[in-house]
Specification:
- About 75% of the residues lie in helices and about 0% in strands.
- It is mostly helical and about 190 residues long.
- Helix 2 (about 40-50) crosses helix 4 (about 85-150) and helix 4 runs antiparallel to helix 5.
- The chain is rod-shaped.
- About 0% of the residues are buried.
């Protein structure tokens, strides 16, 4: 009698990721990126362009052309030697660039605060899991020793093992307390900055 085997289930291809989200894999970064207002997006875009080499090179070339054309007077001298108009343009640029950069930095600081709070909660949860695992390990070791002593197997190795485990658990609890103190101090610093 021929046996039939069921065909393996078809494996669906993984959905393609949106290319724009690739650098923002952390859920908080994605959330803050998607919740930006039009002004915040504009500030982030401007800050991204102003802080680039392309911007610096283009601005340097334009300033060199401005000065060169005004010194040589090939076309028209619209801004003679002290370059008052050029200084005025730089002042206007600085007056708008400063606040835009501050807006972008404030958003970045907000994202850092939210991520620090998230990291603190994650670390606190991990600490609780480690403590639970260590106490379970200690209970299991004590149960093994109780069973061994019930059966009359009282070996010095088992007693030494119990004492080593108790020492390790104590050391781990001290380290976890130190980590908790550091995390609490960092959270207090972040709260003080906010």
């Amino acid at each position: 009698m021929p046996t039939t085997t069921a065909a393996p289930p078809a494996v669906e291809p993984a959905p393609a990721q949106d290319e724009s989200l690739t650098p923002r894999q952390h859920p908080i970064s994605r959330q803050l990126h998607e919740e930006r207002t039009r002004g915040e997006r504009l500030a982030d875009d401007i800050a991204g362009h102003i802080g680039s080499w392309r911007f610096l090179i283009i601005q340097s070339v334009l300033v060199a052309l401005w000065i060169g054309l005004n010194l040589t007077g090939l076309i028209l001298r619209w801004d003679s030697y002290p370059f008052v108009l050029l200084n005025l343009l730089f002042s206007v640029q600085a007056a708008y660039t400063g606040p835009v950069l501050l807006l972008s930095q404030n958003r970045s600081a907000q994202r850092d605060r939210v991520m620090a709070e998230h990291d603190y909660a994650t670390n606190e949860h991990a600490e609780q899991l480690i403590e639970a695992l260590m106490s379970e390990l200690l209970r299991n070791s004590q149960a093994v020793l109780a069973i061994a002593s019930f059966h009359g197997i009282q070996l010095q190795a088992l007693n030494k093992h119990e004492s080593d485990l108790n020492d390790k658990v104590g050391a781990m609890q001290e380290q976890l307390a130190e980590v908790e103190d550091v995390l609490t101090a960092k959270a207090a610093q972040e709260a003080a900055r906010a």
